[in-house]
Specification:
With 344 residues, this protein is an alpha/beta fold. The protein is built from 11 helices and 10 strands. The longest helix has 42 residues, at 34-75. It starts with a helix and ends in a 9-residue tail after the last helix. 28% of the residues are buried.
Length: 344
């Protein structure tokens, strides 16, 4: 573009100037009629117009080819986690999850999780606790099958996760993240994202379970309110409750909560906690939280440290371990006045 445009402008400008110069002289000499000169200039404009369009087309084509190259580079990338050719049909799962000697590292020589053994029963709520970098998010990524273990096995209802279709697996997993992504559209459309055919009654019921109905109906357009890209018209707590409503309407058998109550005020946290308590009922739940009050209703707490499970038990059991990692976390949060709702 930097070469074609100046060169083409020089050629067209010089051509027009030459015709005016020579044609003007001939008109003054009387050897050329003025009408003929104007006709030549008109013909020149008719010639240069399509040529200019072709020159622009070359630029557009170059830009499109560069963009297409990047797009096809992504489309042609071979995924690291491949589906099996003949997946095992799983139907509606119960939610029993088993990690058996699971080891995984984003770099093979540097494992993030090391020989993780954990048996989770259907309907059980597991709280994942540990310092940053302990392997909590990696634990969840393996469960969603974003990666496959380097060693060991992971199974759901006794079926190896490698034998399950990724699409079928993820249809039965719901996730509520710390940073909720809402799409451009109405609140109702965002709630029904995982179930586009949901009726207005189902959407409203999901919002009521998520403690979102009250703030939605107070808006001028109610459920038809446009939230904007990333939900910029809603507060953090409101977006979180819309995300919980989205998980409710999805009705997953396995639920993942990743810092679902982070960065909200006390009253909003209470409402989100109530919504989560309704959401986790009857589902296998894995909850990650640095704010330990989020995990007060967990059946078991699993403490990860440097990729290994170091402690497993209820809050009461772990807090009574002298020098235990969980005990240190609780004491540290008490000192910083960041722990709420956990009684020692």
């Amino acid at each position: 573009m930097a070469v074609h445009f100046p060169v083409f402008s020089l050629v067209t400008g010089a051509g027009t100037l030459l015709i005016w110069y020579h044609g003007g002289h001939k008109v003054l000499e009387g050897t050329l009629q003025l009408g003929t000169l104007m006709a030549l200039l008109s013909y020149l404009g008719m010639l240069f117009g399509p040529l200019e369009w072709i020159q622009q087309m070359i630029n557009w084509t170059s830009t499109a080819m560069a963009a297409a190259y990047r797009v096809f580079e992504v489309l042609d990338t071979v995924p690291e986690v491949m589906d099996v050719h003949h997946p095992v049909p799983i139907g509606i799962i119960k939610g029993d999850v088993a990690f058996t000697k699971v080891t995984y590292g984003y770099e093979k020589h540097n494992p993030v999780l090391k020989e993780v053994d954990l048996q989770v029963k259907s309907g059980e709520m597991i709280g994942l606790v540990g310092h940053s970098g302990a392997g909590k998010s990696t634990f969840i990524n393996l469960l969603c099958r974003f990666y496959d273990p380097d060693e060991g096995s992971l199974s759901i209802d006794g079926i190896p996760i490698r034998s399950i279709s990724q699409t079928e697996l993820r249809k039965q997993i719901g996730v509520v993240l710390q940073e909720t992504f809402l799409f451009e559209g109405s609140i109702a459309e965002n709630i029904a994202y995982a179930k586009p055919e949901a009726t207005p009654e189902e959407i409203m019921r999901a919002a009521q379970i998520a403690n979102a109905h009250d703030f939605i109906v107070r808006m001028p357009d109610g459920y038809d309110t446009q939230v904007g890209e990333r939900g910029h018209k809603l507060s953090g707590g409101e977006k979180q409750r819309v995300a919980i409503a989205r998980a409710v309407i999805h009705d997953p058998r396995i639920l993942i909560l990743d810092e679902a109550t982070a960065s909200v005020d006390t009253e909003t946290e209470r409402q989100i906690q109530e919504a989560i308590a309704r959401l986790v009922h009857g589902r296998t739940t894995f909850a990650i939280a640095h704010r330990l009050s989020t995990l007060r209703n967990a059946d078991r707490l699993v403490v990860l440290d440097k990729g290994r499970i170091t402690e497993v038990g209820t809050h009461e059991e772990l807090v009574n371990i002298p020098g235990g990692i969980y005990r240190k976390l609780v004491d540290a949060q008490k000192e910083l006045s960041k722990i709420k709702g956990v009684e020692v």
